[in-house]
Specification:
heterodimer, A: 202 residues, alpha/beta, fumarase, five-stranded mixed barrel, two-stranded antiparallel ribbon, 6 helices, 31% helix, 30% strand, B: 293 residues, alpha+beta, five-stranded mixed beta sheet, four-stranded mixed beta sheet, 8 helices
Amino acid sequence: MATYRLKTPISEEEIRKLKVNDTLYISGTVVTARDQAHRRALEYVKQGKILPLNLEGLAVYHCGPVMRKEGGKGGRWTAVAVGPTTSTRVEVYEEDFIRNFKPRVIIGKGGMGKKTAVAMAKYGAVYGAFTGGAAVLAVKAVRNVAAVVWLDLGMPEAMWVFEVDDFGPLVVAIDSSGKNLFQDVAEKVEANRLRIYRKLGL
Amino acid sequence: MSSRIIESVAFNLIRTAVIYLPEDVKHVLEKAYAEETSNIGKTQLKAILDNIKLAEKQQAPMCQDTGTITFYVKAGSKAKILENVEAALVNATRKATREIPLRPNAVNPFTEKNSDDNIGRFTPNIHWEIVQGDSLELTVVTKGGGSENASALGMLNPSEGIKGLKRFVGDAVIRAGAQPCPPTILGVAVGGGADVAMKLAKRALVRPVNQANPDPALASLEREILEAVNMTGIGPMGLGGKTTVLGVHVDYAYRHPASFPAAVAFSCWADRRASARVSAEGEVEYLTHRERR
């Protein structure tokens, strides 16, 4: 259970050192993307269009933030609350997303499935679980809101580009060997099901 | 009592709910942190407790998902201006969205358009109950999408009885796993029709977490379910551990002989709610978060 502090862009060699249960803090660039941003990014690939930002080596964050614009129109955006959203909703997109855009870290909550774990092993990436709801703790690490892309999708679904210092703690829950902590927990829980039934007198 | 007072109280309740957890929830989270044996589980509870303190310090919503706004209104039958209450609650929601701010969470399911002010058809959601008297009691609940998505409704076989209910709740917690941001609080209801069961299950979440059910048989059922679901090993944030559920609240309605509706509603650890009573003279008494007044 080692602790790593990595700076983006992160190389494949660096990310492959991380193992499940390690703790990770990220400095550099974190970009938010939820369901609709994933969908649109993959449509861009289909249409041969270039994404408005390069995600290679960065961290992609499953997050629909609360943002505030200081000083009215033309003012600066600041982060108010930026905790993680449920990652399983983008499970259908993530393999394609990792293959095409090469982020090294996916941050979210609740874990991801087999397809994503396989893609992480193949292309070299990890899934970092951030505590669900810890939205103000996350804001503390955001040094600057560098940009926002696709704001037409609405505040939660737009891609927000955060410059961060020591964003975390993230629990490495899928590593680049494809080991999946959430899957391990789910198997143990399944094994407990009959004990629970007995306890309830069933 | 005036529209202006109701709007201002509703705004204060929303603001209080999204920034400050009620003392009863903080208490059970602190206890869980002290008792959790999994290292990773403990890191998650530590992050939650740190986040609660930071939210209070920064006066910021504790979670970015500021939820769907639901009001429970207990209206005294002799209270004045009841016809203006709905507009006051809508105005308070709009103002809260802009000023606190809240995340705009109201989307038209057909056009996919976000209204950007948390207002829309049946949004905010308002539940009315007519009671004796001339005062108005308001409770706001702001509940996130992650926990809502774990909701479960089953039309069980009546021959299985309460055993069927217990199995249904255990299965719902296992199926939900990490998704509703555990440790969670469970609202469980049985009976009524499908709609009544779900409504009672959600309303059961309003009860303070450390307050025992006044019905001893239900209190005992709550303890039994709580102990059983904490044997799952799901743990804080689904990363493993012994703290999966903080409290179980059971309610019921009489059922049709052929039906056995069972409903489970989840609240994430951020069990956000606040209540106040407004008297006929316009005096405001806050019923939760009293330590903050």
